[in-house]
Amino acid sequence: MSTSAILDIDPSNGLATLIADLTQPGALPASAYDCIILTQTMHLLSEPVVCIENCRSALRPNGSLLLTAPVVSRVSPRYPDSDFWRFTPAGIRYLFEKNWSGPFTVSSFGNLRTCVGFLLAHTVEEMPEDAFAVNDPRFPLTVAVHAENH
């Protein structure tokens, strides 16, 4: 049987099944999840280290954290006073080296064309298909982490 939880800090979110602040220690139930998918959120958290610890403690043994964070992005129009960080591949690798006890991998995705297209608010359909064919580590648009809890 599969179950899922949708986390939000905003109690007015009717889709959320768990209301919690990832910057507060112990915000997530211990050993509750096999997988945590945390997309495009870390830059909005004042305490990313606390978030990482919350995720690690909420994972069951052999669980996985799948995380993405922007490298290039506009300031959040919804939360401009809570948009704190941008993570380069080296920066997020360093963060996990210092704060994660299990194995992890860091990948980046993007190139100059996708970064410019993103900043110009182009949709995927407006971009030439070959714009996504090349991954240029000099111009990452987003960074991804797969971290395992052992």
The total beta strand count reads: 6
Radius of gyration (CA) equals 16 Å
- How would you describe the oligomerization state of the chains in this entry? single chain
The CATH architecture designation is 3-Layer(aba) Sandwich
Fold-level CATH name: Rossmann fold
Describe the structure.
This protein has 150 residues and is of the alpha/beta class. It has one domain: Vaccinia Virus protein VP39 (Rossmann fold). 20% of the residues lie in helices and 24% in strands. The chain is built from three helices and six strands. It has helices at 48-58, 89-99, 112-119, and strands at residues 7-8, 18-19, 33-39, 59-70, 104-109, 142-148. The two termini are 23 Å apart.
List keywords for this structure.
alpha/beta, Rossmann fold, globular, single chain, 150 residues, four-stranded mixed β-sheet
Secondary-structure blueprint:
Layout: E1 7-8, E2 18-19, E3 33-39, H1 48-58, E4 59-70, H2 89-99, E5 104-109, H3 112-119, E6 142-148
Parallel strand pairs: 1-2, 3-4
Antiparallel strand pairs: 4-6, 5-6
Summarize the structure.
Helix content is 20%, strand content 24%.
